[in-house]
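Dear colleague,

Following up on yesterday's call, I've attached the two folding results inline so they're easy to grep. Please treat them as preliminary; we haven't cross-checked anything against experimental data yet. The first protein's sequence and structure tokens come first.
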Amino acid sequence: MSVPLLDLAAQYREVGEEMETAVLEVLRSGRYIKGEKMVAMERALAEYCGVEHAVACASGTDALLLALMALDVGPGDEVITTPYTFFATAGSISRLGAKPVFVDIEPATYNIDPGQVAGAVTERTRAIIPVHLYGQCAEMEPILELAARKNLAVIEDAAQAVGAVSREKKAGSMGVMGCFSFFPSKNLGACGDGGFITTGRDDLAELLTVLREHGAQPKYYHRLVGINSRMDALQAAVILVKLPHLERWHRGRRKNAAYYSRALEGLPLALPLVREGNQSVFNQYVIRTPRRDELKEYLTKKGIGTEIYYPVPLHLQQCYERLGYRRGDFPESESAALQTLALPIYPQLSEEQLDEVAGAIREFFGR
């Protein structure tokens, strides 16, 4: 039985009729950028995330960029983050002429190690970007306490964690801003690119709305240099359809994760750990083994989709050679890059498909 890593067509079969109606409404309106759909989406997302404001933009990458721009981060500044994340986290820092400063991860959760953040702070540090990787919030309390003492901003990279909870607080509601992605593979995905930024501050929300439109306020009068990061009304319409289903889909992902954790128990694998007080949304279900590459090849031959998030930590990427990091500087990130593998976890998986994946893994390990 073939089991894809992600099957968006299966999701479409659940909500496709609603999506088509919503998209057709936008097409007939003749209003394709921003508009009523986007405004309604922003309000719904703010309520869902438990914040005052949600500001839509063109991508999750732009969400990070706009958040840093709103804080006036630029040349000479440093921003602390993790090297074990998608490139956009650090790339957004670099695009503004600032310097990404990396801190290693916890081996069990793959999130930034809060105990190492303080040692990376210098007089040039302006912000900290913890990443809520794989759908689980990073340990935020010590990071927020440090930031308060040092007068630093905390921007949550919550691209993989919409709806995740840490000590009863939603992702995106803990830092000064939270950054989200609507990339189609996300738990709440559009039919193309899109993103949004959460904040509890009125001044930042207003600034972000100006920055996303070339810094113009009013139109054609530019008090700032911004970027073009307007959101398509079509994507907003899709998100408005999907959002009411999101918690049900999260429950499906957690159910599938629980199945895997039972079915794979006892194998020579490290299984995902969800910290006490956290509620993961399992954007990915990631297992770990020194035989990762062999296992991936075996599953591929069986028709089972997998993915490696991420094969090269950012400090070892060619474009960051200038930062002076070396192999061995962040051993937990480097080890995770060599050993982790994501399995299919989307909520539309059938029991037969779950059995197929787990059975193939047990078979690989001779069980």
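Below is the second protein, in the same order (sequence, then structure):
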Amino acid sequence: MKLAHDNLDLGRCPTLIAMSIPSVVGTALIFVAAARAQDTRTVVEPKIPPTCSVLRASLTSVEGHNLADADEAKLDTERIQRAIDGCKPGQAVELKADGAHDAFLSGPLALRPGITLLVAAKTILFASRNPRDYDLSAGSCGIVNESGHGCKPLIGGDHVANAAVMGDGVIDGRGWAKLTGQNFTWWDLAEKARAGGNQNNPRLIVLSHCDNFTLYRIRLRNSPNFHVYYGNGNGFTAWGVIINTPKSARNSDGIDPGSSTNVTITRCYIHTGDDNVVVKASGHASHMTIAHNHFYTGHGISIGSETNGGADTIRVSDLSIDGADNGIRIKSNSGRGGLVRDVVYDDICIRETKNPIVMESDYAHYGHAGDKIPTFTGIVLRNVRVLSGGKITLDGYDARHRLGMQFDNVYLDPPLASKVSATYADFTLGPGPVNFQPGGNDVTVTGTGGNGAPNSCKDKFVPMPVE
């Protein structure tokens, strides 16, 4: 499975070079190898468009990670938004360092159709720490309550087609920093919500009904909540994005495409405190390609827990998962379940991960009551290797709603270091080797693993790019 310009080595080329391709705005993005269903667009490396406006930084970061207290009220929101509003489609508003001044400070920004927000190299866009800047209603952000969803995102788009966020600079949500006038951080709020309720924390980027949206080469870090949510759109590309947030940051998902079609996530490095990538399917989610990526701490590559809209035609390939809580995971339950089918994982290497493979049809986090029963079927693991052991869970929901999986060259290395449990499942082994025998309550196994070498993980695991 290849992308156009697939000669780049992800491990050796953390900074990607734009190719000579027509403007990313409106570019149709289909796989060259379209024999297997996935993203139906031709995916080529995006190109940074010409600038309509260059804004120079007037603030100076403290060692690249914070601002001086005296600068915390010097918001750049208005001038950035004015530049975005005044730009023509097919062009970019560039945020650029000016000598020692390398930082911008902003509250919520609204993207516009066809406009790119470009953060230049050695430039940082910091999110405001003042929850009042993000309020959807008076006092709704920066608290824990039952309803949640009380904050605007730092960067938002609603029915904004052909827009983008690009550049070799940084967008920093400062989830670790204390809120203005408070003695707690955004991440403290997330931890407080474990006891009940929902934290009202801003997400870094939220895109709704934004067809043909592109994230390119941008570095995202320390989001108070999800880093990127893309929902109800047709055409989303994340290429060469670097997300770096601590494992301890609760609910700090990396990239979440939801209820959308034609999605490609490629050449990304994601280190976070929750799902590295998760496909959410409260509405139908399909034709997604997740290829040539490296994941570190987090909850791995997930589908769910919402699957009631159905999820299908998803391809995950050339992926390393290193030091995560979960590896390959599909999760749902009777409160939000539906059909997940035609999902293929190919050329995956997993190590130092507690739960390398998790098929969880009765995900307890949201309770067990409801009539939306999940079914996972047509799930194929091909050329998958698990190093360092861990717990493997392969559970269907019940005898009628069974898990259906094929294992083709799936190798546990060493096999005795992995604990495999299964229920209500039908497994097919082969034609490649399989060095374990799944079994459990109401489990059937057909086929036998063939001969062959396990998937090579040589050079698969690489360090996070250095900032």
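For the second protein, one point worth flagging: Residues 214 and 280 are 19 Å apart (CA to CA).

Best wishes,
A.L.
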